[in-house]
Amino acid sequence: MSLERGGIFAHLAAQAAFVAIVADRVYPRRLPQEAALPAVVYRRIGPTVRELSQSGSDGLADARFQFDVWATDPDEADAIASELVAAFHGYRGQMGDTVVGASRVANDIDDDEPATGLYRRIVDVLIQHQEAA
Asked: pTM to 2 decimals?
């Protein structure tokens, strides 16, 4: 299981306060058309940075993920965003099968959608992790 294909979901599924609000409505890349709200969509954004040492690749990658929180109530969107910050900011350890050396929240932004009446919060997270060999 890669970080993107299961590690993030596994990490969030272990966060009781997050699950109490969102349940399993966490989706990679896009929100399904008939998805119940609130829900969270995540995707890798920007380039993944890989470093080299004198002996070659050090096996570490720095990836940036965007989490879009969708809700019909602004307080609910705010509560979910707060749980995402608690789950990721300063975290190190396992996310599924992936070893995470460090993660931090880089941005936390309000971005309401007046045309749809939905509330969106965007939480960007930088995750330094060990890549599979």
From this structure: 0.90
